[in-house]
Amino acid sequence: MASRRQIASMKQSLFDQGYLDEQFIQLEELQDDANPNFVEEIVTLYYRDSSRLISSMDQALERHPLEFNRLDTIMHQFKGSSSSIGAKKVKAECTLFREYCRAGNAEGCKRSFQQLKREYATLRKKLEAYFQLARQAGPHETACRPK
Amino acid sequence: MESGFSSPRRDAFPAGLRVLVVDDDPTWLRILEKMLKKCSYEDAAYQQGSAELVDGWVSYCLGFEPGRVYKKGFVGRGKTHFVTTCGLAREALNLLRERKDGYDIVISDVNMPDMDGFKLLEHVGLEMDLPVIMMSVDGETSRVMKGVQHGACDYLLKPIRMKELRNIWQHVFRKRIHEAREFESHEGLEGIHLLRSGTDQSDEGIFFAVEDMTCMKKRKDVDGKHDDREFGDPSSTKKARVVWSVDLHQKFVKAVNQIGFDKVGPKKILDLMNVPWLTRENVASHLQKYRLYLSRLQKENEQKSTSSGSKLSEFPPKDSQATFGFQNSAIKQQNDVAVDSLPLPLPLPSHDNAEAKSHECDLKGMVSDSTTEKRRALSSRSIPDTKIRTSLALPLESEGGSHAVFDCTIPATTQYKTWSEPPELKLKKERTPSSSSSSLPVHVAPPPPQRVMASTGESPETTSSKNLAMKTQGFNVSLISDMDFYHKNILLGSEVACAPLDEDLHFYWLQGECCNMNLGLQNIEMPEYYDPLYDSSDYSIVDQGLFIA
């Protein structure tokens, strides 16, 4: 059984390491009796929907020459979506990608996208571990704000 | 502004707000729904069937497909659910068309795959007359401006915070106040229109600064009156609002066409439409939207043509959007003045007004003249940088005897022959032709905040500014139609046989817009953008027209 302190410190480290921003806290504040697992629900929704964008981006990056406008559109969507769960590092990578896009830097785009996918996957693992721990501790644990 | 504004129904009213959320991103859709519910917009729904709703959420979350519409239920049949979400802009539009009275406010994402959020915004503004809030993860000024230009009442940046949604009801409330006020002003109560022109289109705090205590009192009265019938029961809210059904709109368009664009005016349209319950204000406001809509259409066509217009490559579309947007919103404001018979043109709009007015006079001459007149102008575009200095002094009926003085120096570029003739304005004002500065300074001495004008009765200023504004409106139309006419003429008459007609037409418009920008906001030399195929004189007509339209 995970202790509350364990959960709290795990969450805190996600903030400290820059994976998450305050939007995540917003989500936690929305969690209530009507939706006791709201945060997890949203994160699940995010990963389900954004995987679609990842694969369209994969496809778009294989084209020659690159259609930067299209890349930018997809990334804009991805960024908007990532802002919903407060995925701070992913979002930063989105911004970088779009800068490369505007500069017409194909190499930069590809490199940045690989990095983005890594951040995206890392965050997923971390959040999954966190939710698992939180579930063990009981339904109300996630509603605490990080100190 | 707080005291007389919000208190009466802060508890009751927002709870029943019917919100339509449109976003292609299911995650945001879900978050926004939850936030809106938390804002108590769905309190009633909770009381009546929360279990069902929660179940609905679960299945919704598991089964989201982009493009599917997720209806949470509507007002009626004993059930009241208030937040509707929609993953597709077209579907949202269909929903809105199906139930024109079904929503109070729309929140829409800017970027959606099936339809530009701006386009949705425009449709909603034109057809349903609902307040629309745009949202995006991008906060570029040009984008926000575009949103405002298209009529968005707010522009929120993602991630959207709960506290930003908590107050969205104010947009609905404000709109109703304005409608109520229009309604009342129709019955002879004038003078509290400041708020409308200020809040709808501008963030300028100064609009509020000139509020007057009697206005406050009045607004409170308005509030009180509408407490029961406007907000208590959502089904009885349509007292002052006109829903422009397809039929009604058709009637309107028919009337406009019958009268002819150059002579169109709200009163005439109203007479022709012969709909007893419709007021002149209703028609005027719809006409104004219709004009904006037409000018949007033109602009879209222009944008399409950029790919075919090689000569226009100097103009990055983004820039032209931004500047055009600015003008349009300014103009919208001006039109609002007309609708509301705003007694005192306030700083920003008045600056535009002044400009527009001086245009108006020129245009009057030009428009009423025949084609040959315009052709003739071709050879005579040789005014040596004349500057028309216009200063307006509007004495206010205020205790302090304060004045608002608008100083406006309009640099006339060499192409505008007619500008050399001083414009005739109906307002009390002095004109001194001078050649001092080349910028457009607006000096405003804002009146003391406490007391500005008598709130009842029409002052002479009111009447004249109203007249003027209405006149300007009239000219917008005549110009549009005129230009339309010219298009055709020119296209038929010119020897451009290579390009398809459509492209030419768009192309021509874009040229007009470019010139227009020069005139209004930038000081770029014009001649380099002239297309040798066309008479330059025609451009001067077009761009001035666009400046107003």
Automatic annotation (TrEMBL), chain A:
InterPro entries hit by this protein: AHP1-5/YPD1, HPT_dom_sf, Sig_transdc_His_kin_Hpt_dom
Entry keywords, A to Z: Coiled coil, Cytokinin signaling pathway, Phosphoprotein, Two-component regulatory system
Subcellular location: Cytoplasm, Cytosol; Nucleus
GO molecular function: histidine phosphotransfer kinase activity; protein histidine kinase binding
UniProt GO BP: cytokinin-activated signaling pathway; phosphorelay signal transduction system
Positions where Phosphohistidine occurs in the chain: H76
UniProt note: domains: Histidine-containing phosphotransfer domain (HPt) contains an active histidine that mediates the phosphotransfer.
Protein name (record): Histidine-containing phosphotransfer protein
Organism whose genome encodes this protein: Senna tora
UniProt lineage: Eukaryota, Viridiplantae, Streptophyta, Embryophyta, Tracheophyta
TrEMBL record, chain B:
Keywords, in A-Z order: Nucleus, Phosphoprotein, Transcription, Transcription regulation, Two-component regulatory system
Positions with biased composition (Basic and acidic residues): 423-432
Any Gene Ontology biological process: cytokinin-activated signaling pathway
Annotated GO MF terms: DNA binding
Domain Response regulatory: 18-173
Residue list for modification 4-aspartylphosphate: D109
InterPro entries: ARR-like, CheY-like_superfamily, Homeodomain-like_sf, Myb_dom_plants, SANT/Myb, Sig_transdc_resp-reg_receiver
Matching PANTHER family: TWO-COMPONENT RESPONSE REGULATOR (PTHR43874), TWO-COMPONENT RESPONSE REGULATOR ARR11 (PTHR43874:SF137)
Name of this protein: Two-component response regulator ARR11-like isoform X1
Source species: Senna tora
